[in-house]
Every structure is written in structure tokens, then in C-alpha cells.
Design goal:
Number of helices: 5
Keywords: Isomerase
Order of helices and strands: HEEEEEEEEEEEEHEEHHEHEEEEEEEEEE
Shape: globular
Protein name: Mannose-6-phosphate isomerase, cupin superfamily
GO molecular function, one term: isomerase activity
Number of strands: 25
Structural class: mainly beta
Strand order of the largest sheet: 1-23-20-25-18-16-17
Largest sheet: 7 strands, mixed
CATH superfamily of the largest domain: Jelly Rolls
InterPro entries: Cupin_2, RmlC-like_jellyroll, RmlC_Cupin_sf
Length: 321
């Protein structure tokens, strides 16, 4: 495969195309400055304005959220697993019906495998613009987002209405629900009982791993971060490994399905039969199935990357496993 053939499968950080109207809280004060990115797969955006960089099915979706300081993403849930790792900034994740069941603060490289069926939100509590990368289980990402009732109500007060089919309408632009299409129903109190509210101890102990701990574990061989045998023992539909300078190898290998490389620190030279490129933090590369390739740091200094590959397992639920 030539470099020209591979180019559409490499998304550079500086070329990411944001959507500022991706979700129902796009006008809600405190959430109206966030940018959403869909990198691989269709994602869960509710806006037709969302750009998809790589539409090739991988068995999972990859996206990102970029937010200035004190900007938050409202409480929501997914029907499939959602894994975040911090690319830059300092982030507070919180969960529960009202967002007060528990919370954790994550720094660069930290990873959070958020269990299915739990309302969660997050905010940038750092001093600069921050970015978190997200992996969602399944090719269809579970059919969209489930919003906490107050999020839908707040959005309506600021001009955004979500249809029962998951499409956004902006009344400030003169848009209205089509005839015969109703608004997205708000969850009833009885339905809300089905969304667990685990404590901070329960969630952090089982589903959060710190970057420097993983780096230490990956000093000689890649660290299996998420997977059936991972340090987070879960089967969300994909596996995640962390590779460091000490565990990288120039030996070529291949997978029978597409895999994804996502540098966290340093610059990485990726070689394959037919070409080569260098990836920087924030870049995302989709490696085609059956293509021999390798990835090694190209410069001195700290160098780590996450490697993601689908497993074909159900993409949830994960809570309680």
C-alpha cells in the first residue's frame, strides 16, 4: 500500500474538523463552547453538521471532545461501552442521575473505561484548552445518546429540541419538529431506577488506570490495559494496549481486522509494506487488516501510544463484571 493509499486512513490532530452543534446541550450555558470530533465510524452525534473523518467499519468508533477551561459535557449514558483517555488538560469526570454519585480527576494519558448504563459527564478543570479521546463499542455506537431528563429540559429552554428519532432542531433558526414526529421522551422516574449510581471507590477501583502506572507495566512488553486479560478486566468489544519505547519493536506484525494507533506522547515512525509515516500526539492512524506494519519512536524522550483492535465481543453492558 502506497503512502497515497494510506493517507485517507491517517487523521492529523491539526486537521481535525470540529462540530460545535453536535449534541442537545450545544446552546446550554457552560456547555456551549465544546467541540466534538468524529474520527472513525459514524459516532453518536445528533447533528448533520458532524464531519466523519474515516467511515470504514472497525468494530468500534473513535471520537474526541475539545473544551476550553470550565466547559462541561452534560450528563448522558450510552448503550455500549465508552472509554476515554486524556490527550491534554485536566479533567473531572462525574456520574449519577444528578452527577453527584461519584467523581474522579484525570490527567494526561490516564484512561477511564466508563461502564454502560451510567449517567456520566465531564468538564475541563485545567487552565488551557484540553482534549480527551473516546472509544465507543460497536460500529453503530449503540444507537445514540440517552440524556438525563434535566439536560433535555435545559436544552429546550435554550432553543434546541431533540426528536424521538435522535435528530436536533434549533428553534432559534426557525426549525421545528416535522409533522408526525414527536420530541425525545424524557425518562420516567421508574425508568431512571434502572441507571445505577456506583460510588467513587467502586468505579475508580475497577475502571480507572493511571498513565504512569501503565507506563511502568509496559517497560518491556505492551501493557494490556483493557481486555479479558487486561489490568481493566472487561470485554467492551475492543482491546486497548499501551506501548512505550521499551516495549516497541521494529518487527512487522499484522491483524486480520483493522487496528488503530493513537500516540499520547512522542513521535512514532510507522512502517508498513509500501511506505512509512510519522505520527504525533493527537494523530490517529487506521491500519488496514492483513497489512504488516511496525511502530517505534522516531525521536528521543518519552514516547507512548495506545493501540486499539476490535474483539467482536458484545459492546456492553460492563457494569458489575
Amino acid at each position: 500500500m502506497t503512502p497515497e493509499d494510506m493517507a485517507p486512513r491517517i487523521v492529523r490532530y491539526g486537521e481535525l474538523k470540529p462540530c460545535k452543534t453536535a449534541f442537545i446541550d450545544a446552546h446550554t450555558p457552560g456547555s456551549n463552547q465544546k467541540e466534538n470530533f468524529t474520527i472513525i465510524g459514524g459516532g453518536v452525534s445528533e447533528s448533520p453538521d458532524q464531519h466523519v473523518h474515516i467511515a470504514i467499519p472497525h468494530g468500534f468508533n473513535i471520537g474526541a471532545a475539545g473544551q476550553p477551561p470550565r466547559c462541561r459535557n452534560s450528563l448522558h449514558s450510552h448503550r455500549t461501552a465508552e472509554v476515554f483517555f486524556v490527550l491534554s488538560g485536566r479533567w473531572r469526570f462525574f456520574w449519577g442521575r444528578r452527577g453527584d454519585a461519584g467523581e474522579v480527576t484525570l490527567e494526561k494519558g490516564d484512561i477511564f473505561d466508563i461502564p454502560t448504563g451510567i449517567f456520566r459527564g465531564f468538564e475541563n478543570i485545567g487552565e488551557d484548552y484540553g482534549m480527551i479521546m473516546a472509544i465507543l463499542g460497536g460500529d453503530d455506537a449503540g444507537g445514540g445518546v440517552i440524556w438525563a431528563p434535566q439536560v433535555i429540559e435545559d436544552a429546550r429552554d435554550h432553543g434546541l429540541v431533540l426528536s424521538e428519532k435522535g435528530k436536533l432542531y434549533d428553534t432559534k433558526r426557525g426549525q421545528a419538529l416535522p409533522e408526525g414526529v414527536g420530541p425525545m421522551p424524557v425518562l420516567t422516574e421508574e425508568e431512571l431506577k434502572g441507571f445505577p449510581e456506583p460510588t467513587t471507590r467502586e468505579v475508580v477501583g475497577g475502571y480507572v488506570r493511571r498513565y504512569w502506572d501503565m507506563v511502568a507495566l509496559a517497560d518491556r512488553k505492551p501493557c494490556k490495559v483493557i481486555g479479558e486479560t487486561g489490568i481493566i478486566r472487561d470485554k467492551p468489544g475492543f482491546e486497548v494496549d499501551l506501548i512505550t519505547r521499551g516495549s516497541a519493536t521494529e518487527a512487522m506484525h499484522k491483524h486480520d481486522i483493522p487496528s488503530v494507533l493513537m500516540p499520547v506522547t512522542g513521535h512514532w515512525r510507522v512502517d508498513w509494506e509500501g511506505g512509512s509515516t510519522v505520527l504525533a500526539p493527537g494523530d490517529t492512524m487506521s491500519v488496514p487488516e492483513a497489512l504488516p506494519h511496525s511502530a517505534v519512536p522516531s525521536m528521543s524522550g518519552d514516547a507512548t501510544l495506545y493501540h486499539v483492535v476490535a474483539t467482536g465481543d458484545p459492546a456492553g453492558p460492563t457494569w458489575g463484571r
